[in-house]
Amino acid sequence: MKGAQVSQSTIPSDKTDKALSAGRLITPVSQNRLLNHLLAADPDYLLPQVRVVKLGFNDIIYEYGDTIHEVFFPLDSIVSSLAIMEDGTTIEISMLGKESVIGLSALLGGGTARHWTRMCIGGSLARLSTAALDHTFTSNESALKHLMHAYSSLVTQVSQRAVCNARHTVLERLACWLLMIHDRVGGDNLRLTQEAIASRLGARRAGITVAAGMLQSIRAIEYRRGQLHIRDRDELERAVCECYAIMKADFDGPKR
Amino acid sequence: MKGAQVSQSTIPSDKTDKALSAGRLITPVSQNRLLNHLLAADPDYLLPQVRVVKLGFNDIIYEYGDTIHEVFFPLDSIVSSLAIMEDGTTIEISMLGKESVIGLSALLGGGTARHWTRMCIGGSLARLSTAALDHTFTSNESALKHLMHAYSSLVTQVSQRAVCNARHTVLERLACWLLMIHDRVGGDNLRLTQEAIASRLGARRAGITVAAGMLQSIRAIEYRRGQLHIRDRDELERAVCECYAIMKADFDGPKR
DNA sequence: CTCGGTCGGTACGAGAGCGAACAGTCCTAA
DNA sequence: TTAGGACTGTTCGCTCTCGTACCGACCGAG
Hints:
four-stranded antiparallel sheet; 11 helices; DNA-binding; 11 strands; homodimer
């Protein structure tokens, strides 16, 4: 539960690289599907303003109530929105990766963060001022359309998780959650302790141990001290509840 | 679980009254806070297009996948968005009343309904074509701002319900749900069977009987064959979980 | 090499809620 | 008046998850 060394206003600039300063950085920025669409809509204005930042697990993007000055497009990373309960336990409300942007809900809502927002899977994010994003979508119909779709997609995910939390077991929710991560990052090896997973699923660490043990026994995953290896995706999909298919369809988008 | 006689495309016109045809109907239309804001922004264009319709419990607003041609502003009624699970059970994702509009998420998303949408508390709704709404918020900054706030407020509610479903008891969720209804309708007497409540909370009917029995024993409510009377709101607020305060603050809005 | 912290595995009793069933009450239509 | 349906109350055994605790394995710092 530590590792929260970096707050939104204090992300050290030495972690930031100008996207254009090295040609090879332009390619990773395009990993984010939404940013790609926005760049296509207004490249000359946006591209020079994009910065890339690297963050690790549980690093803080926004605290509750923060005024949002910048939004983040995950490239190979994943960001969680979390609720923190009165008893101190946490639970993930949404997980967003390369399909979306972090800070949109605050931006369209009222300018402040409605939830604690932390890294779930460490990696790179593209960073953009809200002013630049604001300028783009108020002046560009296509950009607004893509942003609204991303927002609507977030609503779908949160809705389905409300259902899933109410009705499905920890095992099903774990399988669902792992598949969602797998869809959003490139690679089968994840740095995730069981404590970290518990803080996202809103369950006990001991409960995750049991559920992860079941997934190991069917050879779906392998676990070793903070290193989770997704060994058999198909097996995971057999363990998952109906919620995954609904969120996956939304993640894939209307294209296919 | 019956009573679904009326679908979106077949709401009989004899249930519809032109808002302007009788002066006294203008007042009820103003019961919806959001519609009030929109009418203030563009009254000459919008007001002639508003119709009032009355619907009863479980009447259908949208089916899953419906193309949205009209949006609805609840006046003294409440509308539920529901997920229907594979086993046939249902669970409420959001409840909206006089503070918001039904169909906005579909409108901003992609034009089709993402969830089954049914009446929760019967009563009147103001009805408007999506074309009219679309015209208003694309041409009027203030209207767009109010709509975005309503959408953001919906996200807050759904998020908190995801938390609540995961961590709180049926008793807490029932108290929370009843208070939310009480905030949205005028009056202490509700027509709600325990079966109806169960279909919203995603619990068993027998579970609702037990929880409602507890609320009766502390004199918070009285129950009598489909008639629920909220007897002591303060007592309900003592039984509720932390989630209610969060959703209530959002319902009240930034004004106070 | 050793120590202290991190991490995963396991156990226990307790409680909430489930699915399924049945009984009793109330209302209404024939 | 009666029959049937709608609605509430209650029970049973069972599963899941909780909170809490303890242990052992692992790992990096000194």
